[in-house]
Amino acid sequence: MTHYAALAGLGGFLPPRQVTNGELAATLDTSEEWITSRTGIRTRHWAGPGVATSDLAVEAGHRALKSANLPLAPGAVDAVILATTTPDHPCPATAPQVAARLGLGTVAAYDIAAVCSGFVYALATASAQIVAGQARRVLVIGAETYSTILDPADRTTSVIFGDGAGAVVLHAVPEADRPGVLLGVDLGSDGSRADLILVPAGGSRQRSTLGEPDPRDRYFTMQGTKVFAEAVTRMGESASLVLARIGWPRDSIDHLVGHQANIRILRALAGWLGLPEERAVVNVDRVGNTSAASIPLALCDAAANGTLTPGSRVLLTAFGGGLTWGAAALIWPDLNAA
Ligand code: COA
Question: Which positions fall inside the Beta-ketoacyl-[acyl-carrier-protein] synthase III C-terminal domain (predicted)?
Answer without folding.
Answer: 243-332
